[in-house]
Amino acid sequence: MKIAIPMNEQSMDTEVCPSFGRAPYFLFYDSVSKETYYLDNAAVASQGGAGIRAAQVIVDHGVKALIAPRCGENAAEVLTKAEVFIYHSISGTAKQNIEAYLNNQLPLLSEFHAGFHGHEAK
Fold first, then answer.
1. Most Cβ neighbours (<10 Å): which of 7, 21, 23, 69?
2. CB 101 within 8 A of CB 3
3. pTM, whole model, 2 decimals?
């Protein structure tokens, strides 16, 4: 199964980015093949709708689990319609979050914010 995580850097040993739609990169990890790759987030500079654009990229890459600290309502709607489960990340590195996910230790994200609509998340 393919997992995605928003990242500030292209390293499994760095913290998960606090923003989903405006994360500079996405880490993709295949739990079967153990393959990892990164993708620049083209939505990062969007005036608005970054979360929706980022969610569509996640869907287009065949992801079934997104691990993130938060997610906007519009992005969550896109992901949910595509049957992508959204898990709440823990404080730690991407590697720690993947391990927690694989050990069934991450809860589903249950609260979604209204979005920042062109404003940087703080």
1. 21
2. yes
3. 0.91
Query: What are the chain's domains?
Result: 2-102 (3.30.420.130)
Q: Would you list the DSSP string of 19-56?
A: -STT-SEEEEEETTT--EEEEE-GGGG-SS-HHHHHHH
Q: How far apart are the first and last CA of the chain?
A: 32
Residue 49 Ramachandran class (φ > 0 left, ψ -120 to 50 alpha, else beta):
left
pLDDT at 118: 46
Whether pLDDT at 85 is above 90: yes
Identify whether the C-beta of residue 16 lies closer than 8 Å to the C-beta of residue 97: yes
- Under a CB-based contact definition with an 8 Å cutoff, are residues 35 and 56 in contact? no
The torsion angles phi and psi of 83, rounded to 5 degrees, stand at: 65, 40
Cα 94 → chain centroid: 11
How many CB atoms are located within 10 Å of the residue 10 CB? 16
Q: How many residues does the chain have?
A: 122
